[in-house]
Amino acid sequence: MRIDLHAHSTASDGTDTPAELVARARANGLDVVAVTDHDSTAGWGEAIDARPRGLTLVPGAEFSCVHIDDSGRRTALHLLGYLFDPDHPALRAERARLRGSRRARGAAIVANLVADGVPISWDRVRELAGSGVVGRPHIARALVEAGVVATVGEAFEELLSSTSKHYVRKDDTEVFRALALVRAAGGVAVFAHPYAVTRGPIVGPEAIAALAAAGLAGVEANHPDHDPAQRAALAGLAGELGLIVTGASDYHGANKLTPLGACVTDPDQFAALVDRATARQPVSG
Ligand code: AMP
Ligand code: FE
Ligand code: FE
Ligand code: ZN
Fold it and tell me: Are 204 and 194 within 8 A, CB to CB?
């Protein structure tokens, strides 16, 4: 069983449509794939309709969150929610609010770049995002198109990094609130790439322990952005805290180099995750 629990489609910042994503998942030999777009469930319907026979689909989303410690320090982090009720009113409203914040912040980053003479436009970025949730990868593609940088990755190294003078942060959901919402909607919450230091500051084991006490179900230990020591540290922590350990590619199509199935989840861990969902089950058969 090859199980990949984190992938993006054109409903957010991936480049495969949901239908292309599930077809590719099967073609790549996956048995289970989760569609986890940023702050959106818009890809679920198409992915379910296009699901090839034999592929199990796990509907999910990756929530943009912030952890605020006792001294007020803010750390951005991502929470994967699986198998929740997409119609739960408060969670649905929070996703809509996050998408609005992404639009305002995307426009602000583009305005900062334009003010500095960078030849891109917010209209073009919106076009590249289409009906999907706007993210920095769409700005990155506009920068590549305009010849400002050679690759999406290069755009993130400087112009779009969180330490860039052009950067504007989104108004992310406080992580304990996001966790409570996912659980209230009958879903299961997993901390995405907790130790991915290349993306910016991270929270430590104490914060993960506090999240576990508040109902976090698992940690995404096996992720392309974690080295072997980080994966081992997270697996050890999961053992101590009674958390599920997941693995996933965080596939984004052409926006990143990682293929689907680059990291996978153990079948026992997947079964434990599904067991904790109360709103819905994976789509299979
Ligand atoms: P945002 O959600 O708008 O803050 O943008 C963050 C997203 O950008 C992440 O979810 C990744 O999909 C993408 N990203 C971050 N760093 C890189 C990178 N170095 N290369 C390509 N994509 C990246
Ligand atoms: Fe992304
Ligand atoms: Fe993420
Ligand atoms: Zn992701």
Answer: no
CA of 251 relative to ligand 1 center, distance in Å: 11
β strands within 234-283, DSSP E: 244-247
Q: pTM (2 decimals)?
A: 0.97
177 closest CA partner among 31, 79, 248: 79
Q: How far apart are CA 92 and CA 175, in angstroms?
A: 16
DSSP 194-247: TT-GGGS----HHHHHHHHHTT--EEEEE-TTS-HHHHHHHHHHHHHHT-EEEE
Tell me which of 80, 136, 173, 199 to substitute to probe ligand 1's pocket, judged by most ligand atoms within 8 Å of the beta carbon: 136
Using pLDDT thresholds of 50, 70 and 90, give the confidence band for residue 225.
very high
Closest residue by CA, ligand 1 atom 11: 137
- Tens-digit pLDDT profile for residues 117-146: 999 999 999 999 999 999 999 999 999 999
Amino acid at 49: D
Under a CB-based contact definition with an 8 Å cutoff, are residues 233 and 202 in contact? no
If you average pLDDT over every residue of the chain, what do you get? 97
Dihedral sign for Cα 153, 157, 162, 167, please: negative
At 118 the three-state DSSP class reads coil
What is the C-alpha separation between 77 and 236, in angstroms, rounded? 20
